[in-house]
Write a structure and sequence with these properties.
391 residues
Length: 391
């Protein structure tokens, strides 16, 4: 099972979620007799029905920080660009329209996104080459295309969940639209990959709390995990708004209504819970690390990298990778600002050593969207862009 392999090979998941590992082992043994299987929600018993109904006709979302991406990628005519998260294709379309004779390798793990890339490839013969796969599969995909390491001129990595995925209720990512509690970005490719419903209905309270704390930075993780366990004793939790209601009901009204987003608008109290489950189900942090390593390998010397992130866990990972930190043992960092050891000493050592031997930041501080961009595309309000040149 893919999920089993991911946990086994991932030190971060092993340490942070030991309870998750044990609970998942028990779940695997009882998979075929699970009472959850009798529910109408998504699970191992109905893997592709929801995904097969997803429409690809939805208009693509507005690309995040497009002006800044084009500026820092600095793409020249005739160059080869790798868009590592094609999504709705907004960034790729802008690159094709602005730079003559450029070739874009369009990677995405989501088959729905790749179907859009294939359409775009028909409109731009020879200039778009769709690649279906995860960041961790990129090396093999490029090798199959005879693309050599160190031959790409620019790389764009846009982490997290796309607006296209959020807009499709069938995918189970959205809080505002009711749908099956799925959240898998590429479940159609891996039919035995557990979905969010499997997680909330099978893992024990301690494991659920660990996930919410580690991947959602949720202060009320224990209360929410307890409420989930109590609710599923009555009925399996198989719908997005069903889970959202459970989370909202687990906390006092003062807590639920106090949460604001970065535009100071009311934020749903279950937002962090949904983020945590999505990251856990899709192994997003480890895939992001794999993607950064792949970008470093494929970029030529002097090539530019732009990495867009949407929450602090992702941004810390990118920041430390570009800084040259050793992230091979991810559980040591855990991407938490409180687990950095003597940070002042680390910074002094970096300045003395000249920072990373692989990357030169194109801008010292992180880049955030302008106010007008946030008004036009509120979903990009939390995005951060880091740009670097490969040495």
């Amino acid at each position: 099972m893919i999920f089993h392999m991911s946990l086994r090979s991932n030190p971060m998941l092993r340490k942070t979620n030991l309870a998750v590992w044990r609970a998942w082992q028990s779940w695997k043994l009882g998979l075929h007799t699970s009472t959850v299987g009798a529910s109408p929600g998504p699970g191992p018993w109905e893997r592709s029905e929801a995904l097969s109904s997803v429409s690809t006709e939805k208009p693509p979302h507005t690309p995040v920080m497009l002006k800044e991406v084009l500026q820092y990628l600095d793409i020249q005519p005739g160059q080869v660009v790798l868009d590592m998260t094609f999504g709705g294709g907004g960034h790729t379309k802008a690159i094709l329209n602005m730079v003559p004779e450029v070739t874009v390798l369009a990677l995405d793990r989501d088959p729905t996104a790749i179907s859009l890339a294939e359409r775009l490839a028909k409109d731009h013969s020879g200039r778009v080459k769709p690649l279906l796969g995860r960041f961790s599969e990129l090396e093999t995909l490029l090798s199959n295309m005879n693309v050599q390491p160190g031959s790409i001129d620019a790389v764009l990595l846009d982490a997290g969940c796309s607006s296209m995925q959020m807009d499709q209720a069938e995918r189970g990512f959205s809080l505002s639209k009711d749908g099956p509690l799925d959240m898998r970005m590429d479940g159609e490719r891996y039919l035995d990959m557990p979905c969010a419903a499997d997680v909330v209905n099978t893992l024990d309270q301690q494991a659920l709390a660990s996930i919410l704390t580690a991947y959602g930075e949720e202060r009320h993780a224990r209360k929410i995990a307890s409420a989930i366990v109590e609710a599923r004793r009555v009925n399996p939790i198989t719908r997005t708004q069903q889970l959202a209601s459970v989370v909202a009901g687990s906390l006092p009204a003062a807590v639920a209504y106090a949460r604001k987003d970065r535009l100071h608008r009311p934020a749903h109290v279950a937002t962090k819970t949904f983020q945590a489950l999505r990251i856990f189900v899709n192994d997003e942090l480890n895939e992001l690390h794999a993607g950064l390593c792949a970008a470093q390998a494929v970029l030529r010397t002097g090539g530019h990298l732009c990495a867009i992130t949407f929450h602090s866990l992702e941004d810390r990972l990118v920041k430390r990778f570009l800084r040259g930190d050793d992230l091979s043992n991810l559980d040591h960092y855990h991407f938490s600002p409180r687990n950095q050891g003597n940070r002042k000493k680390k910074l002094m050592d970096e300045r003395r050593d000249g920072g990373s031997v692989h990357w030169l930041p194109l801008r010292r501080k992180v880049i955030t969207p302008e106010k007008d961009d946030v008004k036009e595309n509120p979903r990009g309000r939390s995005s951060k862009l880091r740009a670097a040149l490969k040495l």
